[in-house]
Every structure is written in structure tokens, then in C-alpha cells.
């Protein structure tokens, strides 16, 4: 296949030869020297001919208005990300570029505390750090923060990517499993008590951290997950963690997995719902380039600042979005739907307009309407249709959002 690819590229270059020769000189002008001497030529830029990268991802979501909070911005985030400073495959700076290309507003670098197999092993592409650096659990976040600030400075019109200081508390048994501590002040202080997860939770909370239960349905019994084929349950230990105030949110979607019961837990216990990548390889390896179905957590924030994101987290104003699904508490999902989808009653029909980038599948009587991002659609209307069901927006376990249209 490699040989066939080379032959195809050679054929393409031959077909382009007249145009290349005509613009072989500097600044697109033919070079007299090149015509006279066959050993002189100039660089030919073939970027568009040899790459097939989609345009930068743009995510359109209208602002949302809540009765107790007013108008809020909807920020796009991923709050479970790994780098070479634990068991990820890339340097922290690459995570910044990936997030910017995906149209995200805010991310958290959450390298493991107890599990850092990439450091100082001498393998190609893995970091060899000074002792003081390898023992600094804050370093990956600091590198990412510096890169985000540099990117903002280099592009005056670009809004800076926000980087949350976080870490993953990684226990090999379930319960408790794995937890992310977000908005911590110093990961080193949490790492200092890593032999006792209760002390780790207490230290994280003392720093004002938001505590997120990661991948509750992950099937990996030797690494802190559940047994293969076991149900996703809220165990007695997790109930105790919750009662002590050490659980603020749960991942309903992680990597490529969905845990339907989490939407119910979030409503029953007033917990924030998250959809995170938990990414270890490069973005292109896990999801492809700029994939609109990759997991994203939507945050209803007053403004684009770390302080505002933290306030939204603790107010539980988050929604998960992944694989064309929305899931979270109804009190937040419904206002998002109202902001994104316009429903008009016309003689004998409904007219729908999607003002956002989130796909919507509607059940209108016996009709199914697929409302694509930024698109319009219609459906027949009768007096018997009192409610429209949003089949890919969930507010509980197997419970789609229901929208009255009387």
C-alpha cells in the first residue's frame, strides 16, 4: 500500500508539473536561474494536496437562562485528561493544542498520583526529569497553563483556554475506585497522604477542591474498576463518601463508555453530571480529528473564568454531551433545550429550528424527527399531541426529556 501511495503522489506531481514550474521561483514568480540550471529549484508547498484535516471545530450553543441564576454562558470542557506525567502518551502542551482545535473553553489536567509509569524509565519519548521535578505533581498542569497563556499572547483575537489544576486519586480497589480532585491548590500535599484515601479526600476538600467520581461502571477489577459484567452500583462506601461531603459529581460518560444510571443518581443526590474523555493517547488516536461526538461537559457559567467555572461546578450546573446524547438533571437539561430548539405551531404542523450544534431526535406523535445541528425540520401536528419526547436527551435512567406543547 505504501508503494501505491508513492506512485499516486508521483502521478499527482507530474500532473501539476506545468503549474509548479510556472511558479517555481520566489514569491510565485518563475526563476530564470531554475530554468537555466536543472540543479536549482524552490520549495513547493503541497499542504492542501497531502492532508485531509477537517476545519477547526466550531461549537454553537446559545446562552441559557435559569430562574435562580439569570443568563449564563455555556462553556465546553473536558475534565479528565492525562499526559506523560502519569500514563498518558503526550506532553501537556499537546493537550492544550488538542483542546483548542476541538473548540473547548476549559480543561483539567488530571494526572494520577499513585500511578506514574511514564516517568524516568528511559524509554524513547518518555520524560527523564530531575528528581525535584519528577516529585512535583503540579508540573504537568503548570506546563499546560504556560502553553495556553503563550497561545493567547501569540493570537490577540483568541480567547485563552482555561486550565484547571487537578489530579486523579487512583485506588486499585472498587470501592472507592478513582476520583478526580479539581481546583486543587497543591497536588503535592494530596500525594503526601496517598496511603489513605480518606486523608486524600480531606486534604483535597481543605484546598477547596471539587471531587468527581470517575467511571463508576469501568470494568477493571484489578485497577479500581468493577468486575466484568457487574452492575454499576452506588456502594455503601460511596454512600459514606457522599455523606461525608467528598462527592460533588459523577462521570456519566467516560472515554467511550456510558453509564445510564448516573443521570438518575445526579437527580436523586443533586450531583453534577460529566462527560469526559479520560484521554491517554493522542486525540487523533482515540476519537479521530475534531470529532463532534467526542465527550464534552457543558458548564453553565456566569463568565469565562476559572472562578466562574468553579462556582458552576458546586452549583451542579453541568450537563454531559457525548455520542450525540445529552444527559443530566432536568432542571438544567430543559433550559438548554429551550435555548437551542425553537418550536413553532403552524396550521397542521410543527416547525422546528435548531440554533445549536447539538443533534436533536424528536418523537412527535408517531413521527420521528431528526433535527441536525443548525438545521430546520417539520412534523405533522394534531390536537392529540400534548408532549414531544426528546429521544437523545436524558434526565434519568432511560428517561428522555419530555417537552409539553399544549
SSE layout:
Blueprint: H1 2-22, H2 32-36, H3 47-50, E1 64-66, E2 70-81, H4 92-101, E3 106-109, H5 131-134, H6 139-154, E4 162-170, E5 178-182, H7 187-191, H8 197-206, E6 210-213, H9 236-243, E7 249-254, E8 257-258, H10 261-269, E9 272-276, H11 283-286, E10 296-301, H12 306-314, E11 318-322, E12 325-327, H13 330-340, E13 341-346, E14 349-354, E15 360-364, E16 367-371, E17 376-380, E18 387-396, E19 399-404
Parallel strand pairs: 2-3, 3-4, 6-7, 7-9, 12-18
Antiparallel strand pairs: 1-2, 2-10, 4-5, 5-6, 7-8, 10-11, 11-12, 13-14, 14-17, 15-16, 15-18, 18-19
Helix pairs in contact: 4-6
Helix/strand/pairing class, anyone? alpha+beta
Query: Helix coverage percent of residues?
Result: 25-40%
Number of structurally distinct domains = 3
Mean pLDDT: 90
- Model regions low in confidence, pLDDT < 50 over at least 5 residues: 1-34
Q: CATH-wise, what's the superfamily of the largest domain?
A: Metal-dependent hydrolases
For the largest beta-sheet, the strand count, sense and barrel status come to: 16 strands, mixed
Number of strands: 19
CATH architecture of the largest domain: Alpha-Beta Barrel
Please, could you describe this protein's structure?
With 406 residues, the chain is of the alpha+beta class. The chain has three domains: 2-50, no CATH class; 64-328, Metal-dependent hydrolases (TIM Barrel), CATH 3.20.20.140; 341-404, no CATH class. Helix content is 29%, strand content 26%. It has helices spanning 2-22, 32-36, 47-50, 92-101, 131-134, 139-154, 187-191, 197-206, 236-243, 261-269, 283-286, 306-314, 330-340, and strands at 64-66, 70-81, 106-109, 162-170, 178-182, 210-213, 249-254, 257-258, 272-276, 296-301, 318-322, 325-327, 341-346, 349-354, 360-364, 367-371, 376-380, 387-396, 399-404. Helix 4 links the parallel strand 2 (70-81) and strand 3. The longest helix is centred in the N-terminal third of the chain and has 21 residues, at 2-22. It starts with a helix and ends with a strand.
Amino acid at each position: 500500500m505504501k508503494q501505491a501511495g508513492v506512485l499516486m503522489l508521483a502521478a499527482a506531481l507530474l500532473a501539476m508539473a506545468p503549474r509548479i514550474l510556472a511558479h517555481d521561483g520566489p514569491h510565485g514568480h518563475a526563476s530564470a536561474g531554475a530554468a537555466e540550471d536543472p540543479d536549482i529549484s524552490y520549495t513547493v508547498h503541497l499542504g492542501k494536496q497531502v492532508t485531509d484535516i477537517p476545519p477547526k471545530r466550531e461549537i454553537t450553543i446559545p446562552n441559557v437562562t435559569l430562574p435562580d441564576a439569570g443568563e449564563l454562558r455555556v462553556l465546553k470542557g473536558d475534565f479528565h485528561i492525562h499526559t506523560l506525567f502519569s500514563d498518558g502518551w503526550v506532553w501537556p502542551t499537546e493537550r492544550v493544542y488538542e483542546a483548542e482545535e476541538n473548540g473547548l473553553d476549559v480543561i483539567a489536567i488530571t494526572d494520577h498520583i499513585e500511578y506514574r509509569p511514564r516517568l524516568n524509565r528511559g524509554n524513547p519519548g518518555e520524560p527523564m526529569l530531575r528528581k525535584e521535578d519528577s516529585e512535583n505533581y503540579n508540573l504537568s498542569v503548570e506546563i499546560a497553563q504556560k502553553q495556553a497563556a503563550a497561545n493567547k499572547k501569540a493570537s490577540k483575537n483568541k480567547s485563552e483556554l482555561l486550565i484547571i489544576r487537578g489530579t486523579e486519586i487512583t485506588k486499585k480497589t472498587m470501592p472507592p475506585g478513582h476520583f478526580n480532585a479539581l481546583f486543587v491548590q497543591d497536588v503535592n500535599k494530596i500525594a503526601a497522604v496517598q496511603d489513605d484515601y480518606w486523608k486524600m479526600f480531606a486534604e483535597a476538600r481543605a484546598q477547596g477542591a471539587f471531587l468527581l467520581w470517575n467511571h463508576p461502571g469501568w470494568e477493571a477489577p484489578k485497577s479500581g474498576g468493577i468486575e466484568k459484567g457487574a452492575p454499576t452500583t452506588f456502594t455503601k462506601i460511596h454512600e459514606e463518601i457522599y455523606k461525608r461531603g467528598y462527592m460533588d459529581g459523577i462521570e456519566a460518560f467516560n472515554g467511550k463508555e456510558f453509564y445510564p444510571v448516573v443521570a438518575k443518581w445526579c437527580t436523586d443526590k443533586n450531583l453534577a453530571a460529566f462527560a469526559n474523555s479520560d484521554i491517554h493517547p493522542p486525540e487523533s488516536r482515540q476519537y479521530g480529528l475534531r470529532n463532534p461526538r467526542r465527550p464534552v461537559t457543558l458548564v453553565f457559567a456566569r463568565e469565562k473564568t476559572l472562578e466562574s467555572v468553579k462556582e458552576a461546578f458546586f452549583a451542579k450546573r453541568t450537563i454531559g454531551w457525548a455520542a450525540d446524547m445529552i444527559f443530566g438533571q432536568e432542571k438544567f437539561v430543559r433550559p438548554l433545550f429551550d435555548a437551542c430548539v425553537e418550536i413553532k405551531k403552524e396550521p397542521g404542523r410543527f416547525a422546528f429550528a435548531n440554533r445549536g450544534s447539538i443533534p436533536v431526535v424528536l418523537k412527535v406523535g408517531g413521527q420521528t424527527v431528526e433535527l441536525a445541528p443548525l438545521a430546520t425540520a417539520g412534523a405533522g401536528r394534531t390536537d392529540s399531541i400534548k408532549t414531544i419526547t426528546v429521544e437523545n436527551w436524558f434526565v434519568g435512567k432511560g428517561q428522555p426529556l419530555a417537552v409539553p406543547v399544549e
